[in-house]
Amino acid sequence: MVDLEKMPDAAPPGKSAEQAEQAGQGEPVRRSDAEGCLAVAIRIPVRVVVLVLVVPVRMVWDALVVAGRFLRDTVLRPVGRALAWLGRAVFVWPLVGLWRYVLVPLAKGVGWLGHVLLVVPAAWLYRWVLTPVGYALAWFFTRVGAVLAAIGRGLYAGLAWLGRYLAVVPAVWLYRWVLAPVGHALAWCGRQVARGVGLVVTGVGFVLYWTVRVLLVLPALAVWRWVLAPVGRFLAVVGREVADALGHAWRVAGHLSLAVGRFLGTLLRWTVAEPARWVYRSVLTPVGHAVRDTVLRPLAEAGRGAGRAARQALATARLTARQARADVRRMLLGEPAEREPLVRREPTPAPARTLEKRTGHETSPPTRG
């Protein structure tokens, strides 16, 4: 497992790795002869518990991080690039090739073929066939139309003469000597009948007019003139006076309410607002400043001190966990060999193997905790 924490520098000569790590954290170097049995008995269980609880979680987290990065770099990113290339190769490039090398040439060929097979023959047919035939038909129908017009004028003149002496002249004689006298007689009889009916209707209307006027109009006019009009004028005067009174009362009430409101506002200002302002300015503000200076700031300082103490305690617990890991590693694997200083956090690759014979003085590659 790759340790992502920053590796400590190499221990100076004459000091162990544990003492150098403690010196790098700013802690005083503890000597083994100053540790008693009670301190060892307490420290070892605490380190074991921390080791059991923290190390598996850290290992799982590191494994998940490495697996995620490996999956992203080796699977997801290449698969995404492959899918993008596959999409271009399967969809984009065939469609572009189809459009460029098939549809466009085919459209040009179809356009040229349509021009050759349709437009050119149609133009030739219009110019050399339809136009001469049209001119010939126009000349023929012009001459035939003139002949037909002359025949039509002769037929129209003959038919007009026959119609005049066979239909018009008899109809005029019939209208003048038969229908006109009969119509005049019928009109005179109608006028006489209409005059008599008009006299009867006029008499009946006159009677109905005076009946309706005497029975309805004159009583209604009397009621309107002597009852409704005086009552309406009285009610209008009463309503106008009531409206004027309401307006005057509304304006007076507005002035009174304005005066009362100003009085109450002045009263509340001098009985509540000004005393409250004076209390806030002269009492609460000095008291608040005193409480801030004597209580809140010391509490804030105490809180910051508690935070620093908690951070120091966490740093001590972290250092204890590291010491516990180092003690367990020494108990299980023994004292580690001296290591060369590592600057990078990533693991360094092992040196390349050669055909030369290994010697006893060859150092092993550094191992990660």
Sum up the structure in keywords.
mainly alpha; 0% strand; disordered C terminus
Overview of the molecule:
- It is flat and about 155 Å long.
- With 369 residues, it is an all-alpha fold.
- The longest helix has 297 residues, at 37-333.
- The chain contains 2 helices and no strands.
Give a short summary of the structure:
The chain has 369 residues and is mostly helical.
Break the fold down into its secondary structure elements and pairings:
Elements: H1 17-24, H2 37-333
Overall shape: it is: flat
Structural class: mainly alpha
Helix content: over 70%
Q: Indicate the low-confidence ranges by residue numbers.
A: 1-18, 20-35, 356-369
Biggest sheet features:
none
- Report the C-alpha radius of gyration, rounded: 63 Å
Mean pLDDT: 76
How many β strands by DSSP? 0
SSE arrangement, N to C: HH
Number of helices: 2
The amount of beta strand, in percent, is under 5%
Terminal CA distance:
8 Å
